[in-house]
């Protein structure tokens, strides 16, 4: 123990569990790379104003959850609470959208920071892998992203995730719906804050998790009943493409993102093994965001999947990932001369691609063999003075306990043979 602890709402990723987090990130990235998405990395902090505009002043994220600060130089910055605004800012700044190759398809992986009330699955520092397809309006693109997320979850062995799907309409039909919803909501018995939300961000009220609010929302006007012809046709195509791809989804007419530049397709991935923090990922179309950031009209769609909650979902389903072996061979030198010889053998083995570790710290045989067993290695490579005098080392199978001699010059090929034979 030290005097210090990780800050409230955060936790450290430590081996061996951290390997699962890497595997989850990799599993989400693989289908994206395979579909033409290029890796993008943006700073962990940006101008507060970018998030205020790009996420929205009226959202909880900006109004309550942001870590904002003033720098020594007087700049107002914030740790990123999400990455879509940053990614779009970067794409516009580098003029990637003018490359003549639309949509610009990018993916990212990284930390996000939100000042939330910490609980299981809800942290102040968490990690997302996300994808954005910028500059094309095509239902196949919306479908592609949903299919890629589904592939990622399935490649991890998850079966309990569900896809919730909705359309939020566009500039034509949403304002009409918004007004109808506001009128309905103003007639309900709601607290001060929620009443304010009716005026600022009425769609968000549909997302209220409290029972006393939910009860009153029965009979609320729903977006799918108010879609214009163009939005209806677009949404129908997304649904058909998903169905044709064999991806199951559920229509959820109350699923919302409360901001005006979120348009048409919106979706969430939920997992029922997670209790109240059930969303493992979410996304949708944001055709108006580029203009909000001072860019040209660039219809776009994207998602962000939570790595922490995906790991929790794997735990909830009892899925055990096939993780790459950490150590195959553990070298145990007895005496100074053996140290030199085995250290050289370890380097040669590693160069040959064999995961190898070494008993550091001049340990005795007993302690070193304990470490060998704990390392998960299949073979221990042991040598003392007597072995070396004969130009030999000992190779011990840590499962069967069987021990054989190997000439020092043959260590690398013999170990490769043994590991290959064991599969
Ligand atoms: P929630 O409704 O649970 O607050 P959200 O709508 O704020 O989620 P998004 O902003 O859409 O979530 O982020 C996408 C994903 O990132 C979520 O589905 C979730 O898996 C993950 N996520 C969001 N906030 C947190 C957090 N505080 N801790 C851990 N994961 C998070
Ligand atoms: Mg949230």
From TrEMBL:
GO cellular component, one term: cytoplasm
Pfam families linked: HGTP_anticodon (PF03129), tRNA-synt_His (PF13393)
Subunit field text: Homodimer.
Entries under PANTHER family matching the protein: HISTIDINE--TRNA LIGASE, MITOCHONDRIAL-RELATED, HISTIDYL-TRNA SYNTHETASE
Keyword Kinase attached: no
Keyword Cytoplasm: yes
Domain (Aminoacyl-transfer RNA synthetases class-II family profile) ranges: 24-324
HAMAP family (alphabetical): His_tRNA_synth
Residues that hold L-histidine according to the record: 82-84, 114, 128, 132, 257, 261-262
Gene Ontology MF term list: ATP binding; histidine-tRNA ligase activity
Family membership noted in the UniProt record: Belongs to the class-II aminoacyl-tRNA synthetase family.
Superkingdom field: Bacteria
The organism of origin for this protein: Streptomyces tsukubensis
Keywords from the UniProt entry: Aminoacyl-tRNA synthetase, ATP-binding, Cytoplasm, Ligase, Nucleotide-binding, Protein biosynthesis
GO BP, sorted A to Z: histidyl-tRNA aminoacylation
E.C. number(s) listed in UniProt: 6.1.1.21
Name of the protein in its database record: Histidine--tRNA ligase
InterPro entries the UniProt entry points to: aa-tRNA-synth_II, aa-tRNA-synth_II/BPL/LPL, Anticodon-bd, Anticodon-bd_dom_sf, His-tRNA-ligase, HisRS-like_core, HisRS/HisZ, HisRS_anticodon
Enzyme class: ligase
Cellular compartments annotated: Cytoplasm
Catalytic activities: tRNA(His) + L-histidine + ATP = L-histidyl-tRNA(His) + AMP + diphosphate + H(+)
């Amino acid at each position: 123990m030290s005097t210090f602890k990780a800050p409230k709402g955060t936790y450290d990723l430590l081996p061996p569990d951290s390997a699962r987090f890497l595997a989850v990130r990799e599993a989400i990235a693989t289908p994206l790379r395979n579909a033409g998405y290029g890796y993008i990395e943006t700073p962990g902090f940006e101008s507060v104003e970018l998030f205020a505009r790009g996420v929205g002043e009226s959202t909880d994220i900006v109004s309550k959850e942001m870590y904002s600060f003033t720098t020594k130089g007087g700049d107002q910055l914030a740790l990123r609470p999400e990455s879509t605004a940053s990614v779009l800012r970067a794409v516009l700044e580098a003029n990637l959208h003018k490359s003549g190759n639309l949509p610009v398809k990018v993916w990212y992986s990284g930390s996000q920071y939100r000042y939330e009330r910490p609980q299981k699955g809800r942290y102040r520092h968490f990690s997302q892998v996300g994808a954005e397809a910028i500059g094309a309006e095509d239902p196949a693109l919306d479908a592609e992203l949903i299919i890629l997320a589904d592939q990622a979850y399935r490649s991890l062995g998850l079966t309990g995730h569900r896809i919730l799907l909705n359309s939020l309409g566009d500039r034509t039909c949403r304002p009409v719906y918004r007004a109808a919803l506001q009128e309905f909501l103003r007639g309900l018995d709601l607290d001060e804050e929620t009443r304010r939300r009716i005026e600022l961000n009425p769609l968000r009220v549909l997302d209220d998790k409290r029972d006393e609010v939910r009860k009153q929302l029965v009979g609320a006007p729903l977006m799918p009943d108010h879609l214009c012809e163009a939005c209806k046709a677009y949404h129908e195509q997304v649904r058909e493409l998903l169905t044709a791809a064999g991806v199951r989804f559920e229509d959820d007419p109350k699923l919302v993102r409360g901001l005006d530049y979120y348009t048409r397709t919106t979706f969430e991935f939920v997992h029922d093994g997670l209790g109240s923090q059930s969303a493992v990922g979410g996304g949708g179309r944001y055709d108006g965001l580029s203009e909000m950031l001072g860019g040209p009209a660039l219809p776009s769609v994207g998602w962000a999947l939570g790595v922490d909650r995906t790991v929790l979902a794997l735990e909830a389903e009892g899925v055990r990932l096939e993780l790459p072996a950490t150590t195959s061979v553990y070298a145990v030198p007895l005496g100074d001369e053996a140290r030199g010889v085995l250290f050289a053998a370890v380097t040669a083995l590693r160069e040959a691609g064999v995961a190898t570790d070494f008993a550091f710290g001049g340990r005795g045989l007993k302690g070193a063999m304990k470490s060998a067993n704990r390392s998960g290695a299949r073979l221990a490579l042991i040598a003392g003075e007597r072995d070396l005098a004969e130009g030999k080392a000992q190779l011990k199978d840590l499962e069967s306990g069987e021990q054989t001699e190997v000439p020092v010059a043959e260590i690398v090929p013999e170990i490769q043979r043994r590991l290959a034979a064991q599969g």
